[in-house]
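User: What would this chain look like folded?
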Amino acid sequence: MQTANPVLARIDRDAAQASRSGSGFAYEEGRSAVASAQHGEAPPAPAPAADDAGIYSGVQIPAPPGQRVTYPDVMAKSAIMFGIAVVMAFAGWIVTEAMPGIGTVLVFGALIATLVLGFVNALKRQVSPPLTMLYAVVSGFMLGAVSYWYNQIALQSDYEGLVLQAVLATFTTFGVMLLLYGTGIVKVTNKFMKFMLVAMVSYFFIAVASFVAAMFGVGGGWGFYGVGTLGLLLCIFGVGLAAFSLMLDFEAIKQGVAMGLPERESWRMSFGLLVTLVWLYLEFLRLFAIIASGRD
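Assistant: Here's the prediction, encoded as structure tokens.
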């Protein structure tokens, strides 16, 4: 099954490449056995050398028992990542409120760092726990500052509790998606993944176009998201897309455990889950802020 998870997709590509080129651990073992049989010798015991990520000649095979990733591993790492993000979110809020000028500079720096670390962690061949935790630090600070800004926008329209509503909506959505996935009501199939891929790419270009439009004052500075009913529909579409992206994370975690990936990969799985939750929370913030601003 295809997957949107970077590490699992890379494993599939490596395995396919090894199969096409006739190389890899399984191929080398088989070739050695054939050669030994032709000379009437007993085949040598396989002793492949693996790197820290459990990669054998370009193909990742299950880690030894006791060293494989488990669901408790992912839960523990996710709790650590989420805890760091929450603490830094409070810091981002406090700094932005106390020092608006400095806070603005810091939040843009945190935004850039969040994007850079997001790509680095997603594409890095061997997961780095310090880098994943650093992502939680900078993304948490960014969320705190952005939450403060959105809260100020809502207060100008006498709309209170926006941030709390976004937080509750995010956790409620996470619970609902987990329930739908766990009960099998929604199944992550190849068609589902292909649809999500097309939808996410399309939404990315819409978001970029909206950002450019916002710079020219379209939608009162909200871009296409502030253009009447269309804007609300785009916001709702973004929330739904982020919500169903959680299904891809759940499936990636399930596949990783089933494949027997090394325990270290639990950091990458937790990172992917945090990225989706950050995206979902930001979508809820924008949706409620536009509603608070009185846009129809």
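Residues 6-60 form one domain. If you want, I can go into more detail on any region.
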